[in-house]
Amino acid sequence: MADSRMIIETRAGPPFFKNGYVVGCVETREGLLIDPGDEVDELLAAVRSHSLDIRYILLTHAHLDHITGVGRAKAALNVPVGLHEADNFLYRAVVQQGIAFGIPVEAQPPVDFFYEGEGPLRFGRYSVWIRHTPGHCPGGVCLVVGRDEETERTLFPGDTLFAGSIGRTDLPGGDGATLLRSIREVLLAFPDDTVLHSGHGPATTIGQERRGNVFLR
Ligand SMILES: [Zn+2]
Ligand SMILES: [Zn+2]
């Protein structure tokens, strides 16, 4: 079920059509930016249109499509940027990642903190728990958003699990068996009505993927 007290704005743009997210608490107007990439200006416009006070920029992982907007977002919002430490080698190599894809990419400012354990971090009446889900890359995480006093959670799994697909494992540090273990042990442990907002493509639910995702058979 979608939580009507949570603002979720999704933006995606060329060349990767990766989803960047603005997540906000309706009651307090505090929020998060998740994975700002080439669509960062649209994310910042959404932040302004909702009058949100952004607390953190959180990265699900450090492939270039998820991080090319970090510098612009940080310059606009002046808030700390978080990443799993195991992906810092990718983050620091963003220019080289661009060369590998034939795309000129600017270097990004260093991250401000590495995730420690599962958190939580807080914005408004919400907490964000960090669950390590390696496989697509070594430092991939699922951001788990919800209220302490309630059981409902909303997942931002990055490129680990998509509607009808799973993350690729052919990039540096990827591993197929590790990815499937992360999906089964971390993501599929959530109830069927849990909504996922993935790094690419439409939103889905745990139940829909548990039943219909051919890669999980
Ligand atoms: Zn990725
Ligand atoms: Zn991606």
| Class derived from helix and strand content | alpha/beta
Gross geometry: globular
Largest sheet: 6 strands, mixed
SS strand fraction: 25-35%
CATH homologous superfamily - what is it?
Ribonuclease Z/Hydroxyacylglutathione hydrolase-like
> How many domains in all?
1
CATH architecture: 4-Layer Sandwich
The topology string of helices and strands comes to: EEEHEHEHHEEEEEEEHEEH
Strand order of the largest sheet: 1-2-3-4-5-6
Q: If you compute it from the alpha carbons, what radius of gyration comes out, rounded to the nearest whole angstrom?
A: 16 Å
Task: Tell me the distance between the termini.
Answer: 25 Å
Poorly predicted regions are none
Q: Bound small molecules, which ones?
A: zinc ion
Q: How many β-strand stretches?
A: 14
Number of helices: 6
Helical amount: 10-25%
Per the CATH scheme, the topology name is Metallo-beta-lactamase, Chain A
Let me know the average pLDDT. 97
The CATH class, by name, is: Alpha Beta
Mind explaining what this structure looks like?
The chain is α/β, with parallel strands linked by helices and 217 residues long. The protein has one domain: Metallo-beta-lactamase, Chain A (4-Layer Sandwich). It has helices at residues 40-49, 70-77, 88-92, 94-101, 176-187, 206-212, and strands spanning 6-11, 20-25, 30-34, 53-58, 81-83, 113-114, 121-123, 126-132, 141-146, 153-158, 161-162, 165-166, 195-198, 204-205. β11 and β12 form a beta hairpin. The model has no long low-confidence stretch (mean pLDDT 97). The structure holds zinc ion (2 copies).
